[in-house]
Amino acid sequence: MQIPYTETARPDTGLFNGKLGIWLFLASEVMLFGALFSTYVLLRVGAPVRPPGYTILNLPLATLNTVVLINSSVTMVMSWASLMMNDFEKYKLYMGFTILLGLVFLVVKSFEYKAKFVHYGVMLHDGTEITGHLEEEVEDHIVILPDAKDGQQPAPMHIERSQIQRLTNFGPWYNTFLAIYFTLTGLHGLHVVCAIIVNSFLWGPGSKMWKSHPKRFTNRVEIAGLYWHFVDLVWIFLFPVLYLL
Known about the structure:
Order of helices and strands: HHHEEEEEHHH
Number of domains: 2
Distance between the termini: 55 Å
Strand order of the largest sheet: 4-3-2-1-5
Strand content: 5-15%
Structural class: alpha+beta
Number of helices: 6
Helix content: 55-70%
Shape: elongated
């Protein structure tokens, strides 16, 4: 028995089964990210010191990634529109661009993550905090290149181990802000990976359905597009909340 409403809309909702399912799924995703955003807002408002995110995070790379994801949404729409116009070759082209832009986003994000794990903060026993790149770490002392201030790069500092109260990189364990940053962007990155896997299937082996059930295949691409747009929309919120405020 064939499952009904895989190609045509249901009379009660006006949506075919897959589209109804993705909207219900996205509603649960909104609750997930909404809870995380709300937690971040409460923690940030209650913090005694709230420096802007761009003082810790890489704003240029985040801006580049924003442009990348916005363009990927355009190519995703064009891939679906190409199928609506029965142009399968253009679909393959635009879907390929969408997958490529998603991979570019992940690569850029990996550079940003890597920079955090090689950037260190040193807390001395007298309360002094120094942040910078760890140049050398030996048994009795470390050498750290402090962050540039006012456009000038300070000289490397040799710090004795006996003076150090805390030495750690800028991972999620460094402070609450970075813990939230890695949680939100890591979860978002996982969604990007899942979306790329789905789109890659529809671009590759899954595209065989175009020959046998073109309407059903077009619907699948539309569903994947809704998920992709949601992932992009989450980043549009993450960018100002984490990097600008």
